Amino acid sequence: MGGDAHPLRRALPLFLLAGLCLSSLDATAKFLVRDHPLLLVVWARYVGQMVVVTPFAWQRLGHGFWRTANLRMQLLRSAFLLAATVAFFAALRFLPLAEASAITFLAPVVVVALSLPVLGERPTRARIVASVASFTGILIVARPGSAVLHPAVAFLLVTAVCNALYQLYTRKLRDDHPQTMLFYSALVGAIGLTLVLPLLLEETRISVPHAALFMLSGLFAGLGHGLMISAYSQAPASLLAPFTYLQILWATLFGVLFFGQHPDMVSALGMAIIVASGVLLVLWERHRARLI
Fold it and tell me: Is the Cβ–Cβ distance between 174 and 10 less than 8 Å?
């Protein structure tokens, strides 16, 4: 082979570390929402992302890093991500970490359902089959008698829909630089929740260990997104996408270690179906793209 290394050689470690950071964020959030206002926990997550992403975007693009071709759509996209985060963290107060994380992967199913009305794209047969398989896995995880059969699962459905809309609007904003889009991803959450921060602080007393966890959650969010930026700058998204599903494994491990939550065999089967359907779809899309 030539002297050029495979793009995954540098990008994959960054991407895997990003996934670990984001799963660590979820675990930290699950711990914090038990004792503190939900929006305060979400605030820490978005401010952390802003602190890391903004200097990175400024250094890469200059002082005009915030300029966008469609400000209204960027703000709407950011609002969808904020809504997804609020709903997911709300669900974590009541549901096991691993199963909750797995159900959020319903988002690709929603993307397929909405791609025609939102983007005017007709979904391929492979995407439809993968979506049906993934939805089947989610039904197995959330079956009657499982730990996930709780009213809070409605929050996860909101998370999936808002995540799907966030992804669809990301595809509509192809003219903006990725760093600009990441800056706007955090903007609505960071500014909006900072405005109500005095009200949130009145509701809670934060101990020193919990204050450290709030700072850690922001750090995890910022590092996770910063590392993901670096990974995507060194390898195509199609190569990295299958490894996104490793976050379910991290969530399972953290659930066992920190919360004593052990998924049963049936739930594990459902999560395996979700992962397999997603990975196989990504691999098929890569093969299809090479044939075109």
Answer: no
Nearest to 241 by CA among 8, 4, 1, 5: 8
Q: Which pLDDT tens digit goes with each residue over 1-40? A: 444 566 778 888 998 999 899 999 999 999 999 989 999 9
How many CA atoms, within 13 angstroms, populate the side-chain half-sphere of residue 151? 0
Helices (H), the chain: 8-32, 38-61, 71-92, 97-103, 107-114, 125-141, 153-172, 178-195, 197-202, 208-234, 237-240, 246-259, 265-291
- Looking at residue 146, what DSSP letter applies? S
| Radius of gyration of the CA atoms of the chain, in A | 19
For the chain, the domains span 13-291
CA angle (52, 57, 59) in 5-degree steps: 100
For the stretch 257-276, pLDDT in tens is 999 988 888 888 988 888 88
Q: CB atoms < 10 A from the CB of 279, how many?
A: 16
| Total number of residues shown for the chain | 292
Burial of 71 (0-12, 13-18, 19+ CB in 10 A): exposed
Residue 216's contacts (CB-CB under 8 Å, 6 or more residues apart) are: 28
pTM of this structure: 0.84
Cβ count within 10 A of residue 133: 18
Residue entry with tokens 């005009």: 64
